[in-house]
Design goal:
The complex is a heterodimer of chains A (154) and B (727).
Chain A (H helix, E strand, L loop, with lengths): L3 E7 L2 E7 L5 H8 L18 E4 L2 E4 L12 E3 L10 H5 L9 H13 L9 H4 L11 H10 L8
Parallel strand pairs in A: 1-5
Antiparallel strand pairs in A: 1-2, 3-4, 3-5
Chain B lengths: L5 H5 L15 E7 L5 E8 L9 E3 L24 E2 L5 E7 L2 H9 L1 E7 L22 E9 L2 H7 L2 E9 L11 E7 L2 E6 L4 H12 L6 E5 L12 H16 L3 E4 L2 H7 L6 E9 L5 E13 L5 H11 L8 E10 L13 H19 L3 H8 L19 H11 L2 H14 L3 E14 L5 H5 L2 E6 L5 E4 L9 H13 L6 E3 L18 H19 L9 H13 L6 E5 L8 E2 L4 E2 L4 E14 L4 E12 L6 H20 L5 E2 L2 E2 L18 E6 L21 H13 L5 E2 L3 H8 L1
Parallel strand pairs in B: 1-12, 8-28, 10-11, 14-15, 18-19, 24-27
Antiparallel strand pairs in B: 1-5, 2-4, 2-6, 3-5, 7-15, 8-13, 9-10, 9-12, 13-14, 16-23, 17-18, 17-20, 21-22, 23-24, 25-26
Helix pairs in contact in B: 4-5, 7-8, 8-17, 13-14, 16-17
The chains are: A alpha+beta (154), B alpha+beta (727).
Chain lengths: 154, 727
């Protein structure tokens, strides 16, 4: 199998890897780099459990070949400061936790872009992250509690 | 108290089975039957794979009986000569590369000579389709109270109806997975599961190992909903067989499509009602027939049927009741445990039927329920006297008040008259759910629980009950801490590891908080006695006494224990299906408001109120979350979640075409609790986890009926189904 060298910035540090150009960013993070906070829920971009930031935008890392992130900036849930997560704990935004890292990534990104709420509801903006446990109220409540600061997620 | 492991989950630090560090391991893959029924005549290994690189396991590698131990022993670990459903496991392969293992599994051809399959549980099988007993009936059960035929013959009004519910996929966000390895001669299996001792027993049986040579550990589990009750035994056996043959650790983790195709789902059901009433709507007789699709092996279908029929008559008083149930064999992937366990199916039928009755009698469906809700002193279908002091009509009134039911009904009349293509409606369901195992089930389980004092004065709870998102770690901590007057930090919850924890029973049936939590209270009382204190001793007095005990007993181990004891006065007759089916019932009234678009026939739930009496609420945030999550899962089952089957197997086994509700598909779920402490549950708690999935489907369909004037009788009520009714 031929490999290619891919250099990118991950959670603020430079990474250089030789890998199969078709390898998914999700697998690179989880199995090559041991960053298992990013979860696989469906493997086809439906559930959002594998959400990471690619150059500051939330993407499903199961749909991104790692080759595509060369020269780019990637942040995973491991880059998120725990102090930011108080509202999620208080509102019951996590139950089983399998969707949670992806939910956190999308939620903090919404928090960083309060202008989105002029045209969209939180429920619309969170619709790319499936959760089977909470019924979404805890998540939506946590996002609205954490909103309005315009703080960057990382 | 906030969720104990919450921050670990939010930061991604919690390690699920696929996240655990594992060295020098193989990835396992499963080769499955392509046919619903037939004889295996050959297994062909493709030429383009170097098979010497792979570990391969088939039925001949099973050291003990080729049986997955459950109620019956009809299900093989790996099919030997025959297959009974599509996706039945036949062969296992393992390789250091996941991709190589995947490709190899695809390069194996299982050659099956087809035989006539039974694929519709609703129609009587032809002789050549018979594969279980003389009639493909996996289990038959009957409840009889009074004289139904006579009461129906004399009833002024008789209303009939037939109701159908579809299969439902659990869609726990973490798919099924196990790892297995050997430590000296001990086989260790760790993974995603609800019932470590079910897995342990299944491993011991099929691998011919005694319990000293098998150890099962639950890894943090990303959702279960019943889907990780019985199925984990299968995947654990598969991982173990590969690890035993390879003499290396093996990881078997399903991807979403394999998980959806090959694992259990909620039993499809057909329920028929024939109900006799007075002209003013008093129930005189309920004649109910329940048919479940069990799938290709017995698995848990007999107990799902049992819970289904016990709940089938609804929370009403009626002197003459007959409920006949049967679970049918079919060549489908076996259906299994799913939150509610048969009750959601029969309560959907019951509560939809109540609205059909109301419309037939030209009566207000609210009034029909007020009139018939069971009062203290009255008996259920099994003859159980309800005497818990809960005012079930008050629960209903609270739901009506919170939802402004009457105002909305009036507003909808005006709205519907003014709108060309939108219709609004409001509907309700009143229902109940029995907590814990049915009948003598809890006595049979004989659950035991241990708490250990630690040398520094803290307490460790040792139980086989697991956290899967529902809050076990937090609630167990609260129960132990409250009982001893110590802080949550003084309580440790031990990892569910069968080498360390006693068998406190499975984490199912809404039993964990009520039944096992109560064992924690009794076990810490026992511990306190053992250090010479009585029940009044709390806080630092207890901690100091524990620390002193260790100082006085070097090398000793301080434990407190409790074994299940049934509440006094409980009796159950398994032969006649009469008596106290459950120690306690939770009661509820749910109200749904919907808007239907007559052009697209899409139904949207625009408001939802869930009021329930679940005894004492121990943790309001967690309890509310259980209800909200259960309701939304119920919204999915009612309106969108449709398993499409071909040859008994799900063909839309992807989240692309099996749709579950997103945040944008549901309104805020408004939750209220009425509290009436139950004396035999921890802190007065009753079971809660399953109740919330019983009510949404009938409440929503009743609302659609009110909105559109149709009588929908089957779920999921997809736009296609509703279009058939409205055109």
């Amino acid at each position: 199998m031929s490999t290619v060298q891919v250099v990118f910035t991950l959670n603020g540090a430079a990474v250089s890897l030789d890998l199969d150009p078709a390898e998914r960013l999700l697998d690179t993070l989880r199995y090559r780099l041991g960053l298992t906070g990013t979860k696989e829920g469906c493997g086809e971009g439906e559930c959002g459990a594998c959400t990471v930031y690619l150059d500051g935008l939330p993407v499903n890392s199961c749909l991104v070949p790692t080759y595509q992130v060369r020269g780019a900036r990637v942040e995973s849930v491991e880059a998120i400061a725990a102090e930011r997560l108080g509202p999620f704990l208080a509102q019951g935004a996590t139950q089983c936790g399998a969707c949670t890292p992806g939910v956190v990534m999308t939620a903090l990104w919404i928090g960083a872009h309060p202008e989105l709420l002029e045209t969209h509801t939180i429920r619309e903006l969170m619709a790319g992250n499936l959760c089977r446990c909470t019924g979404y109220d805890g998540i939506v409540d946590a996002v609205s509690t954490a909103l309005g600061h315009g703080e960057p997620p990382v | 108290m906030q969720r104990r492991e919450g921050l670990a989950k939010l930061t991604g630090r919690e390690r699920y089975v696929d996240d655990l560090p594992l060295e020098n391991f193989l990835w396992g893959m499963t080769v499955r039957s392509p046919a619903p029924r037939g004889r295996i005549t050959a297994v062909r290994f493709g030429n383009d794979v170097d098979w010497s690189e792979f570990v391969i396991v088939d039925h001949r590698d099973i050291p003990g009986p080729n049986e997955i131990l459950l109620i019956e022993r009809d299900q093989p670990v790996l099919a030997a000569s025959h297959v009974r459903h599509v996706h039945e496991a036949v062969l296992l392969v393992a390789h250091p590369s996941r991709e190589m293992a995947r490709r190899a599994a695809q390069a194996v051809e299982i050659v099956v000579v087809p035989e006539p399959a039974a694929l519709d549980f609703r129609v009587a099988p032809r002789p050549e389709q018979i594969q279980y007993a003389a009639d493909n009936v996996l289990k038959q059960l009957k409840i009889e109270k009074g004289d139904v035929e006579r009461a129906l013959a004399h009833a002024p009004v008789v209303v009939e109806g037939a109701y159908e519910t579809g299969a439902q996929e659990h869609v726990y966000l973490e798919t099924q997975g196990m790892i297995a390895w050997l430590e000296e001669d001990v086989l260790v299996v760790k993974g995603s599961m609800q019932c470590p001792y079910y897995v342990l027993n299944a491993l011991q049986h099929a691998l011919g190992r005694d319990e000293r040579r098998v150890r099962v550990i639950q890894a943090p589990t990303g959702g279960g909903f019943g889907g990780k009750e019985e199925y984990p035994s299968t995947i654990a056996l598969h991982a173990a067989l590969l690890a035993l043959k390879a003499r290396r650790p093996v990881k078997l983790v399903y991807d979403r499509s394999e998980d959806m195709a090959a694992t259990t789902k909620r039993h499809p059901a057909l329920v028929r009602h024939r109900t006799g009433l007075t002209e003013d709507g008093r129930l005189l007789a309920q004649d109910i027939e329940v048919i479940l699709d069990g799938g290709a092996y017995v698995t848990l279908s007999p107990v799902v049927l049992s819970r289904g029929i016990i709940h089938a008559a609804g929370p009403y008083a009626c002197d003459h009741v007959r409920i006949a149930g049967r679970a049918m064999f079919s060549n489908a992937v076996p259906f299994g445990a799913f939150r509610g366990f048969g009750a959601p199916q029969t309560l959907f039928a019951c509560e939809r039927h109540m609205d059909v009755i109301a419309r037939t009698l030209r009566m207000d469906p609210v009034e029909l329920r007020r009139k018939n809700l069971i009062r203290d002193g009255q008996r259920t279908a099994t003859g159980q006297v309800i005497q818990d002091g809960t005012d079930r009509v008050a629960v209903l009134e609270r739901a009506l008040a919170l939802s402004t039911f009457e105002e909305k009904r009036r507003a909808h009349t005006a709205f519907n008259a003014a709108q060309r293509s939108k219709r609004r409606g409001i509907g309700l369901a009143t229902f109940y759910h029995g907590a814990g195992f049915t009948g003598g089930g809890e006595v049979h389980l004989n659950s035991r629980l241990r708490v250990a004092g630690l040398p520094d004065g803290r307490i460790e709870v040792l139980s086989a009950n697991i956290e899967m998102g529902q809050g076990t770690l937090t609630v167990f901590t609260q129960i132990a801490a409250e009982r001893l007057g110590v802080t949550p930090d003084d309580v440790v919850i031990g990892e569910p590891d069968t080498a360390r924890v006693p068998n406190s029973g499975p984490t199912v049936a809404s039993r964990t908080t009520m039944v096992v939590g109560h064992l924690i209270e009794r076990a810490v009382d026992d511990l306190r006695t053992r250090v010479g204190l009585d029940d009044r001793a709390r806080g630092s007095v207890v901690k100091d006494a524990i620390a002193h005990w260790y100082a006085a007993h070097p090398g000793g181990r301080l434990v407190g224990e409790a074994v299940y004891e049934p509440p006094p006065g409980i009796s159950w007759d398994e032969q006649r299906y009469q008596g106290d089916a459950y120690g306690a019932f939770a009661w509820a009234a749910y109200v749904a408001e919907v808007e239907v678009d007559l052009r697209t026939c899409a139904t949207r739930v625009i408001d939802f109120v869930a009021v329930q009496e679940v005894g004492k609420v121990i943790n309001p945030t967690l309890a509310r979350g259980q209800v909200q999550g259960g309701v939304v899962q119920g919204v999915g089952w009612a309106l969108m979640e449709e398993c499409k089957f071909k040859d008994g197997a799900m063909v839309n086994n992807q989240l692309t075409n099996y749709l579950i509700p997103t945040s944008d598909d549901v309104p805020p779920i408004r939750v209220a609790f009425v509290e009436n402490p139950y004396p035999h549950g921890a802190q007065g708690a009753k079971g809660l986890g399953e109740l919330p999935i019983d009510g949404p489907a009938p409440a929503i369909l009743n609302a659609v009926a009110a909105a559109t004037g149709t009588e929908p009788r089957a779920i999921p009520l997809t736009p296609e189904r509703l279009m058939d009714l409205t055109r």
